[in-house]
Specification:
Elements (H helix, E strand, L loop, with lengths): L20 H14 L9 E5 L11 H19 L3 E5 L1 E2 L4 H10 L7 H25 L10 E2 L3 H16 L3 E11 L4 E3 L4 E16 L12 E7 L10 E4 L4 E6 L4 E5 H10 L5 E7 L7 E3 L6 E6 L11 E4 L5 H10 L23 H14 L3 E14 L7 E10 L11 H8 L4 E3 L2 H12 L3 E2 L1 E2 L10 E3 L9 H14 L3 H4 L20 E3 L3 E2 L1 H6 L12 E4 L6 H12 L7 E5 L2 E2 L16 H7 L2 H10 L6 E2 L2 H23 L16 H22 L3 H30 L5 H21 L4 H9 L23 H9 L1 H20 L9 E7 L12 H5 L3 E6 L7 E6 L3 E2 L6 E2 L8 H10 L1
Parallel strand pairs: 1-2, 3-4, 8-11, 9-14, 18-25, 24-25, 26-27, 28-29
Antiparallel strand pairs: 5-6, 5-17, 7-8, 7-16, 9-15, 10-11, 10-12, 13-14, 17-19, 20-23, 21-22, 28-30, 31-32
Helix pairs in contact: 1-21, 2-16, 3-4, 5-11, 9-14, 15-16, 16-17, 16-19, 18-19, 18-20, 18-22, 19-20
Length: about 900
């Protein structure tokens, strides 16, 4: 009896006690790289990767996005699907141009040289980002990604353009578009952000040339409010709402015309007094002519429904060259499109020639005051559009651009807008409000401006007749351009003459001319990335991107796919929010609050970062901080300790599992619970509710396993005879638990799950990532299900009563531990079946349990008292059979072991 410790079956495993993720994870990356298994069996599942810009090392937002994608793909693979996850990169565009220009220190280079520099820059960061993503454990087709700067991909984009042109959707026009004066290029809606901007607002007098039928000797004028005084030099008219009432008000020294409700609002807030001479509907003002406040030209009055009386005066000044609504009114009345602003945002004529528009506004205000045309002015703060790249305010400016028509009927009789809207209900949106958001954007969006005045991108694949300017948008020309681009890359457009690219004898359809010139604008990068649907013949099963992609890649891909193939490019759209810091501010390098994944991996390990990603409800913005990563680490350690407990207690297991139905009741219960959680986790993975899967895993670890099972099973594992049925039941249960548990965590904790699986003596696959999930209910029998409903809820409720009573004894120092107590349980008739329950002592972890039934009682009563039994030196239980040093059970086991 002197070596009792040697007779105890203590846990033993080579699975390390410390995670050591920073050392362990790279080893597994190297080993996976050598494995050739591609998991090709099963029904195909394609996640289409929205391509990021390769213009810097990966940031936390990249990690959030790619880890979510990887978890989905890995979970689908475990469900038997064949995964297609081809990563992509958006290699063209302004972000890369900007970086290359910085490296050149502003020195200009010729177009071809500059494009080669951009290409090299993009390729360098593709490699760097790929390494960063691989370090996160992302399992994708890294050897053959799609790159928008690859010649084959560029040729696909040219083909998409050709198909849109053949459908009659491509046109060239001079319309007001968002213009970045810093980047000197047109911008699409998807490239616009909004931020608070300070503007000068003015209320201006436009004197009326013809009267409005009132008897007055004072000069009548329309009061016009604008927040862009710099557009007044481009004014060609005024607009009123036909259905609003307007008043002619005689003031002390003038007669003012404005919307009736605006006059009433002004009269309440300002020291104005006047007599209303006439009230009329806005339509009665149509055709009247006002005088420009400082230019020698007329300003005719037109009607427009967009004019409101919520602010301002109800009269809007119209500059068709600087506003979409203004342009439409101007088109309706045949007014000129005046654009006295150059590419840099400087006025090109008049007293303010050479002045930047925002600097000109206060000067124009002062001039209006000097000539007595200023009614009022203010400085306002309001949401204003800014460039997505340089973050400077943009302007509306009419310039010649290429567009895709949203409302022109295609050969099938439907417009692009109609087809896109009709496709929305056929897509599964996660979360559901994504459909509403996309619908609103498509309903309201203008024609798509697809041309950019930059150098690094796929050129607009159009040639124009040198004689008449007519574009040659034929299929033959487009096919020839595709061929040249596929062979040489899109830089061929800037290297070779037009005649070397288009078919010989190409003839202008308008004038018969045979000499053509290339359009030198490039395509919108959203057109490029949106064309990626051409990579596959079938719609993708899933796309996952940030919520900003409703107006970006999701929308461009949808529009192009329905135009070319008449079906959406994806079956399910999942969106996630942005990563913010502790103050809720969006993380960005410029703000200095960005956290790099490489730093997190060095400090915590990739698995802990992955666990954090999986644990957050990513449909909203998510906070990232050291405190939250510490919480993720603690949760991770609980899981790892659970794995180590399971592996350690399977040491020397025979390998033959006891069938579930012949396990002990408690073993049967925990296996049933594990199977139930496993099935729920699989369902959550399928529903893309990854954070709920994590919650279920965490609750199972801290609840059923830690609170109820693991402590209870230790006595059988450590102290029962090695080959006893009770210990074989316990070890069999651990096998079932490990098999279920490892499958739940494998898609998330890719390194830890793999490492643990390699220490599992009963593994059946070379890698944990080759396993498939169990069918629902595989390890849950009818008996276990019945017990889970009828027995265990009442048992655990009684356990809570017992623990409360025992804790009171411990607090008063009557006992030191619960093992020193005996429990008497009095059961009501409805729970009489629990009187013969065989697991009371195991569940309650006490010395002795007595049960009786009181038919007159409706509630359970428990009595907890100390015992005076001796403590067994081997199993540490207090037992009446302890004679000298050990209890009767341990005495028998020691004889067998020794």
């Amino acid at each position: 009896m002197s070596n009792l410790k040697d007779t105890v079956q203590l846990p033993h495993t080579a699975f390390p006690p410390r995670a050591g993720l920073s050392d362990m994870e790279p080893r597994w990356l190297a080993q996976w790289a050598e494995q050739s298994e591609k998991h090709s069996a099963g029904i195909r599942y394609r996640l289409h990767d929205g391509p990021p810009y390769p213009n810097g090392d990966i940031h936390a937002g990249h990690a959030l996005n790619k880890v979510l994608k990887d978890i989905v793909c890995r979970s689908q693979r475990m469900m038997g699907r064949s995964i297609n996850f081809q990563p992509g990169w958006d290699c063209h565009g302004l972000p890369i141009e900007t970086q290359v220009i910085k490296k050149q220190s502003g020195k200009a280079s010729d177009c071809v040289t500059f494009r080669k520099q951009c290409h090299a820059f993009a390729n360098d960061y593709v490699d760097r980002q790929r390494t960063g993503f691989q370090r996160l454990g992302i399992d994708a087709d890294w050897e053959t990604p799609y790159l928008t700067a690859d010649s084959e991909y560029e040729a696909h984009v040219v083909a998409v353009f050709g198909q849109l042109a053949a459908a009659g959707l491509v046109y060239h026009g001079r319309k007001p578009i968002h213009w970045c004066t810093c980047c000197k290029t047109a911008l699409a809606e998807a490239e616009i952000e909004y931020d608070t901007h300070q503007s000068v607002s003015v209320t201006v007098r436009f004197p009326l040339i013809k009267g409005v039928g009132v008897d007055t000797k004072l000069e009548p004028s329309l009061w016009v409010w604008t927040t862009t005084p710099w557009t007044l030099p481009a004014n060609v008219g005024l607009a009123v709402n036909p259905d609003l009432d307007y008043v002619v008000v005689e003031l002390e020294s003038e007669v003012a015309i404005m919307a009736k409700t605006r006059w009433e609002a002004l009269a309440e807030t300002r020291p104005l007094s006047g007599q209303v001479l006439r009230t009329m509907p806005g339509r009665d003002l149509e055709g009247l002519v006002a005088q420009h406040p400082f230019l020698d030209q007329a300003a005719p009055i037109g009607l427009a429904d967009f004019v409101t009386d919520t602010d301002g005066t109800g009269v809007v000044h119209i500059a068709p060259g600087h506003g979409v609504d203004d342009y439409q009114v101007g088109q309706q009345y045949g007014w000129d499109v005046v654009v006295p602003v150059d590419d840099s945002g400087c006025l090109t004529q008049g007293d303010w020639m050479g002045q930047f528009v925002f600097k000109a506004s206060p000067q124009i205000r002062d001039h209006l005051r000097d000539i007595n045309r200023l009614v009022d002015d203010a400085t306002i703060q309001h949401a204003y559009p800014q460039c997505w790249r340089c973050h400077n305010p943009v302007i509306f400016r009419a310039t010649p651009q290429w567009f895709i028509a949203m409302d022109k009927a295609m050969p099938n009789g439907k417009t692009l807008r109609e087809m896109a809207l009709a496709a929305l209900p056929t897509i599964n949106w996660v979360p559901e409000w994504g459909e509403t958001r996309m619908r609103s954007m498509i309903e309201q969006r203008p024609d798509w401006c697809i041309s950019r005045q930059r150098r690094w991108g796929i050129p607009i694949p159009v040639v124009r007749c040198q004689s008449c300017g007519e574009p040659a948008l034929t299929a033959e020309v487009n096919t020839a351009i595709q061929k040249a681009v596929r062979k040489h890359g899109s830089t061929v457009w800037f290297e070779q003459p037009t005649a070397a690219i288009i078919p010989p004898n190409t003839c202008c359809a308008a004038c018969g001319g045979r000499h053509f010139e290339k359009v030198m604008d490039i395509l919108d990068v959203w057109f490029e990335s949106g064309s990626s649907f051409m990579l596959d013949d079938e719609p993708a099963d899933l796309v996952i991107e940030g919520t900003d992609q409703h107006r970006g890649w999701f929308q461009s891909a949808l529009l192009l796919a329905v135009a070319v193939r008449q079906v959406p490019p994806f079956k399910t759209v999942m969106t996630h929010g942005f990563i913010v810091d502790e103050q809720g501010k969006k993380m960005s390098k410029s703000k200095g609050n960005a956290t790099k994944p490489a730093q997190i991996i060095q400090s915590y390990g990739a698995d802990i970062l992955r666990w954090w990603v999986a644990s957050v409800d990513a449909k909203d913005d998510v906070q990232l901080s050291p405190q939250l990563l510490d919480q993720a680490k603690q949760s991770f350690l609980k899981i790892r300790n659970t794995l180590r407990f399971l592996l350690g207690n399977l040491n020397k297991f025979s390998g033959v599992c006891v069938p579930v139905d012949t396990l002990t009741p408690m073993d049967r219960w925990i296996v049933h619970q594990a199977q139930t959680v496993h099935d729920a986790v699989v369902s959550e993975y399928n529903a893309l509710a990854i954070h709920r899967a994590v919650q279920r895993i965490g609750q199972f670890c801290s609840g059923d396993l830690s609170a109820h099972y693991l402590d209870s099973v230790k006595d059988r594992l450590y102290c029962d005879a090695p080959q006893s049925h009770s210990r074989q039941c316990a070890q069999s249960t651990l096998v079932y638990l490990f098999e279920l548990f490892i499958r739940m965590i494998a898609p998330i904790l890719v390194f830890t799950a793999e490492d643990a699986y390699q220490y599992y003596a009963l593994k059946t696959m070379p890698s944990v990532h080759s396993l498939t999930v169990f069918e629902p209910g595989t390890h849950s029998t009818e008996l276990a299900q019945a017990e889970a409903k009828q027995t265990w809820p009442a048992v655990f409720a009684i356990k809570e009563q017992v623990y409360q009573a025992a804790e009171a004894l411990r607090q008063t120092k009557v006992i030191k531990q619960f093992l020193q107590t005996q429990v008497t349980i009095t059961l009501p008739s409805r729970l009489a079946h629990l009187a013969s329950f065989s697991e009371w002592r195991t569940v309650l972890l006490v010395a002795e349990v007595t049960c009786c039934v009181d038919t007159n009682s409706t509630d359970v009563a428990v009595q907890v008292t100390p015992v005076d039994y001796k403590k067994c030196d081997r199993c540490w239980r207090y037992d009446p059979t302890v004679s000298d040093t050990v209890c009767a059970r341990c005495e028998q086991v020691v004889e067998v072991v020794q």
